[in-house]
Write a structure and sequence with these properties.
Length: 93
């Protein structure tokens, strides 16, 4: 099975609320590869690869995020080709 790719731009109160750390934990539990990072705009960018069903589980989680977060919008793009490593990591700018 060919892995799918999911690229997300998450808006709202999503920085300083453990969004990156918690999304990393969720992605690792789901067995996904990829990364998550804060953007200078106050948004969080996430890129993940895995099977479609598992990626949808991560997307559903991102719609709420951790308890301290307030997600207002998610821009989702499927099948974007971003390079990823062998695990899911938090990137720091």
């Amino acid at each position: 099975m060919t892995p799918k790719s999911l690229h997300l731009i998450i808006s709202g109160h999503v920085q300083g609320v453990f969004f990156r750390a918690e999304s990393q934990k969720k992605a690792q539990v789901l067995g996904l590869k990829g990364w998550v990072q804060n953007l200078p705009t106050g948004q969080v960018e996430l890129y993940a690869q895995g099977d479609e069903k598992t990626l949808k589980q991560l997307l559903d989680w991102c719609k709420k995020g951790p308890p301290q977060a307030s997600v207002e919008d998610i821009q989702a793009t499927w099948d974007k080709d971003f390079p990823v490593g062998s695990q899911f990591e938090v990137k720091h700018r």
